[in-house]
Design a protein that fits this description.
about 300 residues, alpha/beta, Rossmann fold, 6-stranded mixed β-sheet, 10 strands
């Protein structure tokens, strides 16, 4: 790919900020559309936009919000039309964000799988890019691992906490870290901790060997984490076990407490991002992680996307 064909909005190289002694936040919420998804969208749209232009095509994507907003933004940057399929109950700010980028938005009633199914229906000119399934999207997410290594002076922390739903962040970061280790750019890999809500915790249950019964309707405050039956679940389990990773499930009150605590300390993030901090606090309180352990917590989305209202 030639340099002038790269579709970018200045994503990446987000701050790594010290929160407390040995605890750092990677502020993915400061990407152009307010989430880590911009890393994948830039690489995916860069790879495909010439082909779409030649065929007079348009982008089709399914998303609970953040990926849809990101893909709509990068499609707009590339001069492409976009049609974004979203769950019927998508958060208002995310829905508005997608529309402001000029994309057509289709609300789909039913499960998250139904949203994906509708996005993939054959229509003239439609290019279904499917960020969850497309490996090029995850290649873009790998850049987060490379940045962490460079910003840490090639000495990565002992643990990295990530919120996990469909798995693009988890798989992208693990892939990047494996690449760094195999290239001998780093000596050791951090322990990856996948963080999930009780309602949406298929990965946690598979890792612990327990039965998962998804709710009929996801009502968690962490409304960006909705994949109760992620298509890449077996791949997530395989990769997380290969790197001796861990998985933590947190409760609604723990998410709200983490969200509020971070906001009161100047970090305004999505409740879905607060899941990773809640998971860290849970392991800290249980003694599974020490205060002396070096930790990075990835804060994935900006708080301006939330539907929560402050208490008076």
């Amino acid at each position: 790919m030639r340099e002038h064909e790269i579709v970018t909005l200045g994503e990446g190289w987000t701050p790594l900020v010290e929160f407390s002694d040995k605890v750092y936040f990677k502020l993915e919420s400061l990407n152009p559309t307010g989430s880590f998804k911009d890393r994948g969208s830039s690489v995916l749209v860069s790879a495909l936009h010439r082909l779409m232009e030649e065929k007079s095509g348009y982008v089709s994507e399914d998303s609970s919000g953040n990926a849809g907003a990101s893909m709509a933004a990068y499609a707009a940057r590339a001069g492409l039309r976009a049609k974004i399929y979203v769950p019927e109950m998508v958060a208002g700010p995310k829905f508005d964000q997608i529309r402001f980028y000029g994309a057509d938005v289709v609300k789909v009633s039913g499960s998250r799988a139904k949203v994906s199914e509708d996005a993939q229906k054959i229509e003239s000119g439609k290019f279904y890019v499917g960020h969850i399934l497309h490996p090029i999207f995850r290649d873009g997410i790998r850049s987060l691992a490379y940045e962490l290594a460079e910003q840490s002076c090639w000495k990565l922390p002992e643990r990295v906490y990530l919120p996990v739903s469909a798995g693009t962040l988890l798989l992208g970061v693990i892939s990047g870290l494996k690449h760094l280790k195999n290239s001998q750019a780093i000596k050791t890999m951090p322990r990856i901790v996948a963080s999930q809500t009780r309602q949406v915790s298929p990965l946690c249950h598979h890792m612990k060997g327990t039965r998962y019964e998804p709710p009929e309707k996801v009502t968690s405050v962490a409304d960006a984490l909705v994949s109760v039956n992620p298509p890449l679940l077996s791949l997530m389990v395989k990769n997380l076990k290969e790197v001796n990773g861990d998985a933590v499930m947190v409760e609604e009150n723990e998410i709200l407490e983490a969200f509020t605590e971070l906001a009161r300390k100047g970090f305004f993030i999505e409740p879905s991002s607060a899941v990773a901090y809640a998971a860290y606090k849970k392991q800290l309180n249980s003694g599974e992680v020490s205060r002396d352990s070096s930790v990075v917590i990835v804060l994935t989305g900006v708080g301006l996307k939330t539907m929560l209202k402050p208490r008076l």
